[in-house]
């Protein structure tokens, strides 16, 4: 499992889903940025690479503030998207089963947020 540029902080969240979905199917997590001039199309997707292997892409970053060298991460959206895409590893279609998996994964995420004492996950910034 590879965490491509900027996605390493999501590792504990991904790992927390191991009892809910088959994580061994996931080969990498990547992040992308939507230019400010473009309309946002999607928050993420799960790509089938063949041989039962998958890649997850997440829209992770917003505005890049060069003066502070901080990237705005849409943390809440990222976690919801990650839970949604991880659920695809077990249930590909958008069935009630899929959303149940997504909800179970979000519950795992809340435990990590509690442990880390994150007060407000709506928007969070990290140093790049
Ligand atoms: Zn989906």
Q: If you average the pLDDT, what whole number results?
A: 85
- C-alpha termini separation: 22 Å
Helix content: 25-40%
* Unreliable residue stretches: none
Q: What is the approximate shape? A: globular
Order of helices and strands: EHEEEEHHE
Query: How many domain regions?
Result: 1
Please report which band the strand proportion falls in: under 5%, 5-15%, 15-25%, 25-35%, 35-45% or over 45%.
Answer: 25-35%
CATH architecture field: 3-Layer(aba) Sandwich
Structural class estimated from helices and strands: alpha/beta
Hetero ligands: zinc ion
Number of strands: 6
Largest sheet: 6 strands, mixed
Rg, Cα atoms, Å = 15 Å
Determine the number of helices (DSSP H or I, runs of at least 4 residues): 3
Determine and state the CATH class. Answer: Alpha Beta
Q: Could you say what the CATH topology is called?
A: Collagenase (Catalytic Domain)
């Amino acid at each position: 499992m590879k965490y491509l540029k900027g996605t390493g902080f999501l590792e504990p969240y991904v790992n927390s889903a191991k009892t809910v979905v088959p994580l061994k199917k996931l080969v990498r997590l990547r992040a992308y940025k939507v230019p400010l001039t473009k309309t946002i199309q999607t928050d993420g997707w799960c790509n089938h690479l063949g041989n039962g292997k998958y890649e997850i892409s997440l829209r992770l970053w917003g505005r890049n503030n060069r003066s502070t060298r901080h990237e705005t991460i849409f943390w809440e959206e990222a976690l919801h998207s990650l839970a949604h895409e991880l659920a695809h590893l077990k249930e590909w279609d958008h069935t009630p089963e899929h959303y149940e998996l997504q909800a179970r994964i979000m519950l795992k995420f809340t435990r990590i947020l509690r442990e880390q004492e994150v007060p407000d996950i709506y928007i969070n910034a990290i140093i790049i």
